[in-house]
Amino acid sequence: MNSTMSRGKGKRRLMSEINVVPYIDVMLVLLIIFMITAPLLTQGINVDLPNAPASPLDPGDNEPLVLSVDRDGKYYLNIGDNEDQPIDDATVVERASAVLRRNAQTPVLVQADESVPYGRVVTGAVLLQRAGAPKIGFQTDPSGSERERRR
Hints:
Layout: H1 2-9, H2 21-41, E1 65-69, E2 75-77, H3 89-102, E3 108-112, H4 118-130, E4 137-138, H5 142-150
Parallel strand pairs: 1-3, 3-4
Antiparallel strand pairs: 1-2
């Protein structure tokens, strides 16, 4: 009889566990929100890159400065407020030099449509050199060259 009485009168211990179910619900909602909004945040100029078997660059810590040249020969930079608005030659030099003054190690790339005249691409590269870019890389589409080799 003593054992039944002691069981009921004993001290109850506090439960020190965290209920994680609400946190899991919040994380799932955030995951869904990020999955929906991430594709909307990626902006860029639609450019058909030329096919070439080039090896990818080391990503490094710096985000590259990319000068895009569309089919009509208009220039776009991946910096500034309106990345999808064409800019003139003077603006290319001004914005690129501002980025390169902040960080001289910023990789500089040219992404040009394959149907753009060669002279327009060279003019873009000269503008980037005038802005202070020591090296300029050209983006290509290596997956297209693999498709052509398989034919």
